[in-house]
Design a protein that fits this description.
The structure is a homodimer. Helices cover 32% and strands 26% of the residues of chain A. By secondary structure, the first copy, chain A, is of the alpha+beta class.
Chain lengths: 316, 316
């Protein structure tokens, strides 16, 4: 038996996930819910469990930031304005030093992403955090996965692969890990994402790896993509620490980047660049949507790159 | 060090729990959030961890119902109309038989409470469930804890103490446990709660035990209460299985009932009874709000009953 998380959800939970108020239910970054004639609510939940999603004895300040950022990233993927979040925190014990650092990291992230803590629950058990986020969009404006069109360009924000590189150094002290901040302090571009409404045709956040996440857009939209590996945005730290091939592999399949991948009609290209420049967001076009299904990824010589890593799978 | 859950939240998390859109933040059953001029969003999250909040090897169907009912109960306490819920499910392994039964219980509860599953996350780890619920109220209509007034009557729905009695028999087969359904299949009165808007002055759901939960209303409202133990609604099963004194103790401090406790001006008494009768809700007046702080609980002879059980505390 090897149920993927996707199969598990589709088979057991999707059947009762709809009422007339649910505009988009299970299967996109956030559920979208009508609550007034002109606004819709976007909501999503993410759980992180010790020793599964983060290492044992992770620093509480960074852990708190990362957990809120990962959940906020789903709001970015919908172009939603953050309203707030709920936290379910399960702890072995109420260690005040740990809690002080955790609350401080959470508070800084809440301030950074402009989303207040709305409520929560603290329980005793193995360390685990569930963060549920809420945001709002104008009715019909939410960026979805299912609306990419052949000919659209494929864009990504930030640089990719650094969070994966951080895993190679997590046993080292933070000051010896060039990628530490990219793992514990991701900064999904929430404000930039809101300005993509009306410009982007589809969007997703990069949590499981570019190929896996772009794959979700392609599948939901019934299209394919050509990706130029030479155009992947790689940080100088990644290029210095790894071979070109390793760096590209981390960028394509690494996960945990919490940047945006979106598609947009070619006509919006220069407008997108201006918006990104204004907000100091690194924005890179890495390819184009095709009618032909599947992802074709080529190197700088135009040779196909093998990619068989399917991204993170929880139950397979 | 013995931090109560309340202290932990107030000290570490309350400081960053507010923006202008947050009408009521941490400290009531749900947070209330303005999202359009005429409606407000009510939201709350509850976590249940195996061997802490429910026994090891709990039946998955009942576990799913109980978990959703417990979270829905917070919406009842606010008089909110349910919109939907998110589920974060952490599992040791993807056991299909277990999941089938769990999804079936969750689906039946979602249908019963009229709230669709909006999204979720499945992760690997020790069995734990976080359910986050959303509901809506007309602006300003949410039932809060802080607005009980001296002279108001204190009401409870359903009968109390049965869920506590169920714990005495959880090792027995379900058919030998008269209280099994009251533990695994609580039915918070969501529809009745919505009709209390405009009639009740304050409300809370009974999750930690009547005295503990009523205590939250009294503290938030700056008042006290006289409670007549002889008027407590006790099921015939509870009265047959336990002494009068034991039954009253379970009703006062047992917890897990997921019924409503609310206060209302005396002038609404008969209207409340009519509403409850129409909806086949058992409704009982058990006392009155006083200016004098604290809870005074008396038996049928008017003698004070000792009560020092503070309800469920997670970290003390």
């Amino acid at each position: 038996m090897a149920l993927s998380e996707f199969d598990l959800i589709q088979r057991f939970f999707a059947p009762f996930a709809s009422t007339p108020a649910v505009v988009t239910g299970i299967g996109d970054d956030c559920a979208v819910l009508s609550i007034s004639p002109d606004h819709q609510l976007c909501t999503s939940i993410d759980t992180m469990v010790e020793a599964v999603h983060f290492p044992k004895d992770a620093p509480p300040h960074g852990l708190a930031w990362r957990c809120l950022a990962a959940a906020a990233s789903d709001l970015a993927a919908c172009g939603a304005r953050p309203l707030g979040f709920c936290l379910a925190l399960t702890l072995e014990k109420a260690d005040e030093v740990w809690l002080e650092a955790f609350a401080s990291g959470l508070s800084e992230a809440a301030e950074f992403f402009q989303m207040p803590l709305l409520g929560g629950d603290t329980t005793r058990g193995g360390l685990a955090l569930s963060v549920q986020v809420m945001g709002e969009v104008a009715s019909g404006a939410a960026l979805l996965r299912s609306t990419a069109k052949p000919g659209d360009q494929v864009w990504v924000t930030g640089s990719l692969g650094d969070a994966r590189a951080a895993l190679d150094y997590l046993a080292s002290p933070p000051e010896l890990n060039d990628f530490y901040d990219r793992y514990y302090y991701p900064k999904p571009p929430l404000r930039f994402a809101q300005t993509l409404v009306g410009l982007a045709s589809a969007a997703i956040d990069i949590s499981d790896g570019l190929l896996a996440d772009l794959g979700h857009i392609l599948e939901a939209s019934g299209v394919g993509a050509d990706i130029a590996a030479a155009d992947l945005p790689l940080s100088s730290a990644l290029m210095q620490g790894y071979s070109r091939q390793e760096a590209a592999a981390y960028a394509l399949t690494g996960g945990d980047d919490y940047q945006l991948c979106f598609t947009a009609p070619r006509a919006h290209s220069s407008k997108l660049q201006v918006l990104a420049d204004d907000q100091h967001i690194q924005l890179t076009c890495i390819g184009a949507i095709t009618e032909q299904r599947g992802i074709r990824c080529t190197d700088s010589a135009g040779q196909p790159i093998e990619h068989d890593t399917p991204g993170y799978r929880h139950f397979s």
